[in-house]
Amino acid sequence: MTPVSEAIPVAKLTQRIGRIQPSATMAVVAEADKLRVQGVDVVDLSVGEPHFATPQHIKDAAIAAIQANFTKYTAAAGTAELRDAIIQRHAVDFGSNYKREEAVVSVGGKHVLFNAIQVLVEHGDEVILPVPYWVSFKDIVQYAGGKCVFLETDEAQGFRVTANAIARLVTPRTKMIILNSPSNPSGAVMSPEDQTEVAKLAAERGIWVLSDECYIYLNYTGRQFSLASVPEVRDRLVIAGSLSKTYAMTGWRMGYALAPALAAGAMAKLQSQSTSNPTSIAQKAAVAALKGSQDCVEEMRKDYIQLRDHMVAGLRALPGVKCNMPEGAFYVYPNISSQFGRSGVNSPADFAGKLLREAHVATVPGEGFGTHEHIRVSYATSMKELDRGLERLQKFLASL
Ligand SMILES: Cc1ncc(COP(=O)(O)O)c(C=O)c1O
User: Fold this and answer.
1) Which of 251, 263, 387, 394 is the most buried (most CB within 10 A)?
2) Ligand 1 proximity of 109 Cβ (cutoff 6 Å)
3) Residue 92 burial (10 A CB sphere; 0-12, 13-18, 19+)
């Protein structure tokens, strides 16, 4: 009998799906999972999510929603209750001023980014993306037919992004600038002044700013800031927010856009023809998260600071490892290039691959984030795991 794969011709896939890659972080997770299945004890410093459980009052709200049969479709852009809660929380915390029709609830922050880029970036448009960048920005832009224009930054300057540097890359085709502060993967935080200057430059030239605020509550500088508080740039600004990291809700898939009504309406329209509304139950949980006590956010933030300090001190004590002090998010981005040339290690991918296979520590190589001398280490785990990871790293370096 002819095997099915020979009888049916391989389907011709679209050009656009050929333009994107699976996420680099997912590849590490898959390799670490393979080892775990074989019974290997892996120390996982690759994860991009909080190790905390979702706070109880948020879980209770979801359970209550199920019991009350709040289990039907909602408006595609999310319930009025949740959109109002988002607007209010953002206004109180960051001094913004949005109306309900300027808020859209989506299935996680990544979905917000996808919607925003789909409705704003045309084929051939250029999107300025500071390096290192979070992996998905590049692929989402490419899927829309846009072209990423990379802004190289200087590690010695804390990967600083300035308006001057951006201005040099602007062309008549520039449609959007993507900012992500605090940054995944570097943990760098842009100062309010730098962010404002970039956004003003963009507004003057009619360029959109997509500000990814996924880690905005995990800013350890003491200067909480959102571009949404700068009225001059409001007409060209899309805020992509997420409850994933702030409230340890990665699996609930709750994100939101704050944007001028025209853009927000277009994003809601696109969503109405793809996912429809985000899950009704998760929306009730999100209302509880945003309107309830914010103590849990503060408690998690304090813990992250301790974990960061411990991790950075441990990494800096390792011979040949350099690393900046990250000011936000929950990642460290050490430079491991001093190890190149030893034991066949010539790139971050070589280093991270060998580290995983031989020392059983999972990290993410920097190539996926656009740099060639770093690995991303997540400290969203317990102190004990950090210590186990550091100990293995130390032995690994000695073995190279
Ligand atoms: C920079 C950045 N933006 C957005 C997201 C998306 O998060 P979610 O879709 O869970 O809201 C992530 C997740 O890792 C991220 O790191």
Assistant:
1) 263
2) yes
3) exposed
214 pocket-lining for ligand 1 (C-beta < 6 Å):
yes
What CA–CA distance (Å, rounded) separates 272 from 131? 33
Nearest CA to ligand 1 atom 7: 109
Mean pLDDT of 304-324: 96
Per-residue buried b or exposed e for 279-312, using 16+ beta carbons within 10 Å of the residue's own CB: bbbbbbbbbbbbebebebbeebeebbeebbeebb
> With 0-12 CB in 10 A as exposed, 13-18 as middle and 19+ as buried, what is 17?
exposed
Average pLDDT value for residue range 287-308: 97
- Rounded to whole angstroms, the Cα distance separating 256 from 261 reads 14
| CB-ligand 1 contact for 369 (6 Å cutoff) | no
Q: Please give the distance, rounded to the nearest whole angstrom, from the Cα atom of residue 362 to the centre of ligand 1.
A: 19
147, pLDDT greater than 70: yes
Residue 92 reports pLDDT greater than 80: yes
Give the pLDDT band (50/70/90) at residue 25: confident
Note the pLDDT tens digit of each residue in 348-374.
999 999 999 999 999 999 999 999 999
Determine the Cα–Cα distance for residues 191 and 173; give it in Å rounded to an integer. Answer: 27
Q: In whole angstroms, what is the distance from residue 400 CA to residue 396 CA?
A: 7
Ligand 1 centre to CA of 108 (Å) is 7
Closest ligand 1 atom, residue 243 Cα: 11
**pTM given for the model:** 0.95
Cβ of 184 less than 6 Å from ligand 1: yes
- The per-residue pLDDT for range 157-205, each reduced to its tens digit, is 999 999 999 999 999 999 999 999 999 999 999 999 999 999 999 999 9
- Does 378 sit in the ligand 1 pocket, CB within 6 Å? no
pLDDT of residue 2: 46
Q: For residue 111, which atom of ligand 1 is closest to its CA?
A: 9
- Ligand 1 atom having least distance to the Cα of 183: 1
In short, whether 50's Cβ falls inside 6 Å of ligand 1 is no
Mean local confidence (pLDDT), 300-313: 97
Contacts for 386 with CB less than 8 Å, ≥ 6 apart: 45, 307, 310, 311, 314, 379
With tokens 């802004």, the residue in question is 151
